[in-house]
Amino acid sequence: AFGKTLRGVRLETRVDLPEVRVAVMPAGDGPVPGGAVSSATRAIERRFARAIVPGDGRSLPETFVAVLRRKRLTFACAESCTGGAIAGLVTGVPGSSDVFLAGIVSYADEAKTVLLGVDGRLLARRGAVSGAVVAAMLDGVLAATGAGCAAATSGIAGPTGGTREKPVGLVYYGAARGRKRVVRRAWLAGLERGAMQRLTAHLALKLVLEVAWRGSHETA
Predict the structure, then answer these.
(1) Distances (CA, A) of 120 to 108, 136, 147, 154
(2) CB burial string 168-193: b at 16+ within 10 A, e below
(3) Which of 36, 145, 151, 177 would bridge with 77, disulfide CB 3.0–4.6 Å?
(4) Beta sheet of 180-187, edge-to-edge order
(5) What Å distances lie between residue 149 and 55, 97, 175, 210, 214, CA to CA?
(6) How does pLDDT run across 33-75, given as a tens digit for each residue?
(7) Ramachandran angles phi, psi of 13, nearest 5°
(8) Cα–Cα distance between 10 and 8 in angstroms, integer?
(9) DSSP designation for 96
C-alpha cells in the first residue's frame, strides 16, 4: 500500500550519516498525476514521522539553530558519552552564538557531581548510565547556565566497558525546556564508537526540538 503512494514520483536522497535528506520529485518527463508529489510527501511523513525533522533541505543542526533562534531560546548541553559532539554540531552552524551558551563535558562521576550537582548517592545507586542521572544532568546544566533548553547524554560507547545489564551501545539522552523533561533510552548495538557518539548527539538535538515544539513530561 505504501508503494502505491509513490507512483508518479521519484526520491532523491543525500546521505550524510546519520542524516539522510530526501526530496520528492516528479518521475520522468511526462505528465504527473495531480497531487502526486504532495500525496507522496504526506505518506512518507506519516510512515517515518518519528525519524523526520522538517528542514527544507537543511541539516538537523542548521534546523536546530534556526528553530531556537525563531523561538528566542538559548541552549546548553551536559555531555558524557558524546564527549562534546552535541556542542560541536551546534557550534558548527554559522550564527549559533545567538542560541548556544555552554557545553559541559562531565565524563567522570566526580565531574557530574562537581559541575552539575548530580547527587553522589544517585550515581552510586543507579549508575551514571541511567535515565535518573541524565535527568539530574539536565537539571544541573539548566541551573548552571540559565539556558532556555538543554540536552544531556550518558552511555557506554565501547568497545569495552559494557555489562550484561548495561551493554555496549546503551545510551540515555534527554532534553529539557523550562520545567519540561524527557529522557529516552536507546540501544545502538553494532556501531563503532564514533558513529554511536554522532548518532546519540543527533538523537539528543532532535529530542530538544520535539520538546521545544510540543513539550512533554515523559521519563524512561
Answers:
(1) 12, 11, 24, 16
(2) bbbbbbbbbbeebbbbbbbebeebee
(3) 151
(4) 100-105, 75-79, 149-155, 170-177, 180-187
(5) 20, 15, 7, 11, 13
(6) 667 777 777 777 666 666 667 667 789 999 999 999 999 999 9
(7) -125, 150
(8) 7
(9) G
